[in-house]
Amino acid sequence: MIYNRTSNGCLFKCDSCKSIHLEFNNININFLSKDKYYQFAEYLQDINIAAAVKQNAHSPYQRKIVIPIGSGGCNFMLHPGELEDLKRLCLLQLDTNIINISKLEIDISLN
């Protein structure tokens, strides 16, 4: 079941393993439960982009937004636009039907 999709990724639940999978650019995160996914999604939504960029302004990394993954040995490194897209991808409610308007085809003939 696909929950959401953007040009940079996809959020879906696998029928076989029942995990929620997040693909974003070249990163894949597998959430074994909805609780773990929601914890991650809420964390993302709470990030103030301007504050995160300011906090890491002097970092040698090109991408100034750092999001720890797992135990912290791995991090997402994002530009502000990438974080905005990741926030759009990570829904706070998974049990609603999401319709991507750009892909919606409607027959408006009056016949």
Could you please describe the fold and organization of this structure?
- The protein has three helices and six strands.
- With 111 residues, the chain is an alpha+beta fold.
- Strands 1-2-3-4 form a four-stranded antiparallel sheet. The chain has a two-stranded antiparallel ribbon with strand order 5-6.
- Strand 2 (9-13) and strand 3 (20-24) form a beta hairpin.
- The radius of gyration is 16 Å and the shape is elongated.
- The chain starts with a strand and ends in a 22-residue tail after the last helix.
- The model is unreliable at 98-111 (pLDDT under 50).
Topology:
Blueprint: E1 2-6, E2 9-13, E3 20-24, E4 27-31, H1 34-45, H2 49-55, E5 65-69, E6 74-78, H3 80-89
Antiparallel strand pairs: 1-2, 2-3, 3-4, 5-6
